[in-house]
Structures are given as structure tokens and as C-alpha cells.
Amino acid sequence: MSGVTDLPFRQLAWRHGAGLVVTEMVASRELVGNANESWARLKGAGLDPHMVQLAGREAYWMGEAAKIVEANGADIIDINMGCPAKKVTGGYSGSALMRDPDHALSLIEATVKAVKVPVTLKMRLGWDENSINAPEIARRAEDAGVQLITIHGRTRMQFYEGRADWDAIRLVREAISVPLIANGDVETPQDAIEILERSGADAVMVGRACQGRPWHAGWLAGQAALDSANIAAIATEHYEMMLDFYGLEVAVRHARKHVGWYLERFAPLLPAAVKAEIMTSKDAAHVARRLRETLEEPAFAIQSLKVAA
To answer: Which residues are responsible for catalysis (predicted)?
Structure first.
């Protein structure tokens, strides 16, 4: 969820009932090189436990970055072997590591050996349908000291097309004894129940389903659904938290996608030209006001419990 689950987003998700939140992936070599963006992604601001996700393609940089992350308050370090984005896989990181399990294990071992905090692993089923190797990698990762594994029920080549294969995740469950988290296409509490039953997993992770509703994980876990007034208030607060975190110029750009997701989900009848005007305005006060007004307006807002939650 690079570019999505920054600190303001995670703070809202945590407040509204998420059981665990994870940073955006932090590029290991860039962090060691003292890149400002990497340090911004590392911040936890009191979230407990503070779980940081590292990405990389070389064992040395993963180990060094893990030491930095631990020294700066991380309680858990997660290794990203699931991102399908071409920018990431083109650099032989993310899910591209699943194409070479031996190399992937070298990164895992370096990370585990570098720190005392628990190390976890997030990956997909495999690179493509002809290389479903998540069970093998998961077993070897557990042997190397990984203490929890998350599986997205698609291959890298599927990206986000089709439906996640919840049954295929069970093959990983059968290969490991550490806790397993299942991920992919969990939109409703019924989905959460079903993915747990079909995969044999211990918990559920949600990603894209939280875009435009940072409270979604909490709702899946039993929190009450929100009405339009609460949704409008949270969306506006989210926008203002981003202004505080990034500063005006950067925040106005970063927040556009979040504003768009809120409007798509909860004001679907809003004319496209009006939506574009709200999203592209550089006047932060205007955007905050129009976002709240629009989400509170019955003519545009969705009242359905299922959609609003």
C-alpha cells in the first residue's frame, strides 16, 4: 500500500479498530542512504506495536536497514515479497523475489539475523500460475526464523485481476506452524469469515478495501457502521492530518487520491466536473470544506450500511 498507508492513515485505522497496522514499504538501501522519504515512512508516533515493512533486493542492505528500523522503535519488521508493481519488480524486489527462492531466503536470513525483534513475511502465491511456490518459501522462511506469514491469494502476474484464490492459501497453512494471515478481496465481515474458513488462516489482512475508508478493518472486526456525518468528519480529519504531517504543498498533492476514493465510495452521484474541481484545487481550506459538505449531502451520499461501512 505504498503511497496509501502513511502515518495519518495508520493512525485513523488504528483508532477505528484495526488490530495491527503496517507502514508503507520502506526501501532498504534508500533508508541506509538516509533518504528523507524513507525516514518519513518509518515514523510510528506512538502506535503500538509499531510494524515496519522493508523492501529490497540485496541481503546486505536489508540487514543494515533492519538494524536502523529496530533502533528507531520498530517492534516488528515485515519483509515485502508481495508487491506486484513494475517499478518494484523491475528492480528485482517485491514479488520478483519469488522467482528465485534461494536469493529470497538470503534476504530473509540477513534480516532475521540482524535484529532481535520478530520478523514477518508478506508474499503472493507465486510469480505466475506455473510457479506457485509460496508453500515452499513459507516453510523455508519459518526455518530461517520468520514468525508470521501473510499471503495474498494471487500470483504476481495476476496483479489485482480476477478473484483472490482463498483455497490456495491453505497450502501454505499446511506447510507452516507459525501464524498465517490471509489477504485478498475481503470486503465484508462475511468475506472475512469465509477466507478464514477456506484458507485455515489465523487472521485477515485488508489492503485496497481500506482505500477511502480507513475504518474498514475495524468494521470487519465488529465495529459499528458509520453514517454520512461520521464519514464526512473522518474524511475531513484525514485531510487535515495529512496537511499537518507533510506540510501544505506536499500534502495537497498526496491527499488527492484519498479525496478521490472518499468521493468515489460515498458521493458516487457527484458530477465528474465537480469531483475534479475538488480533487485538483490547491486551496486546502476549500478542499476540506467541499469534501465535508459533499459527503454530508444526501443527494450525493450513499446511505447503504454495506457500502458505507
So the answer is: 83 (proton donor)
Could you list the active site residues? 83
The rounded distance, in Å, linking the Cα atoms of 237 and 132 is: 42
Residue 214 confidence (pLDDT): 97
The whole-angstrom separation of Cα 142 and Cα 123 is: 13
Supply the DSSP string of 197-260, one letter for each residue: HHH--SEEE-SGGGTT-TTHHHHHTTPPP--HHHHHHHHHHHHHHHHHHH-HHHHHHHTHHHHH
On the question of pLDDT at 40 being above 90, the answer is no
Among the candidates 181, 196, 220, a domain finishes at: 220
Residue position matching grid coordinates 520478523: 119
211 marked as part of a ligand binding site:
no
Q: Are residues 213 and 233 in the same domain?
A: no
The answer to whether 257 is annotated as binding is no
Flag whether 207 is marked binding: yes
Average pLDDT, the chain: 93
User: Which of the listed residues 192, 220, 248 is the one where a domain comes to its end?
Assistant: 220
Same domain, 112 and 236: no
Give this prediction's pTM: 0.92
Has residue 2 been placed in a domain?
no
223 labelled binding-site residue:
no
CB 275 within 8 A of CB 291: no
Residue 112 pLDDT > 50: yes
Q: What is the dihedral of CA 22, 66, 87, 169, to 10 degrees?
A: -50
122 known member of a binding site: yes
